[in-house]
Amino acid sequence: LEIAGIFAIALVGGAIPLWVRWKERGLHIALALATGVFLGAVFLHLLPEVAVQTAKAALAEDHGHEHAGEHLHGDLLPWLCMLVGALGVYLVEALFLRPHDHDELHRHRAVSWSALLGLAVHSLTAGMAFAVMRGQNIESAMLLAILTHKGFEAFSLTSVFQLAQYSRKQVMLVVFGFALVTPVGILLGEVLAEGLGSQGVLMLNALAAGTFLYVCLCELLAEVFHHREDGAAKMGLLAIGVGIMWFAHSAGI
To answer: What span, in angstroms and rounded, lies between the C-alpha atoms of 77 and 17?
Structure first.
């Protein structure tokens, strides 16, 4: 039932922008809202989650040792994964996705696939973490969090792919594939829960955070304000997108 609900929410969220026929100017304005959602997800959800999980792991590792912080290199491992995520997306985009002539359409498509990569890694880890946490007190809260984020993330992903001028059929195929990622993560987590453990989930979350950090700050923000018109509207929608994720965080979602 949970898997079906997560899949349906993602499909609906991703389909909503397809009901409107956007012009490029309108797409850039809509992208501002999507970017705000992504920024909120990075700075209010992913990064704090990695920090909290790292702190917990460090406390557990230092328990019983005379000198706290003895395992500094172990504490740095999640942040190294984050660096790998950010640098990895840049290198893939620079070497394989971004054309040398800097054509705008190809740049939009590079951004869209980079965003999909970051979202897919994050969604996979969320599904695996949910499977690991099943049967615990936070299971219901975690399911609500996944459902809420999934809808907004799918909406934002569709907006990015529309800007890259993919057809509606192509965008829906991307959304369909994205909707399957978290359910697949849940199934994988059920199989690999014991071997993966909290440390494995932490590393995957850190990788997703690094990926998203690069895409948001280096690609999506630059794309939103690539043209100067509608600056006030874009800033307002950017703030609304962040506000949505702030509300979700404040409400414990």
So the answer is: 38
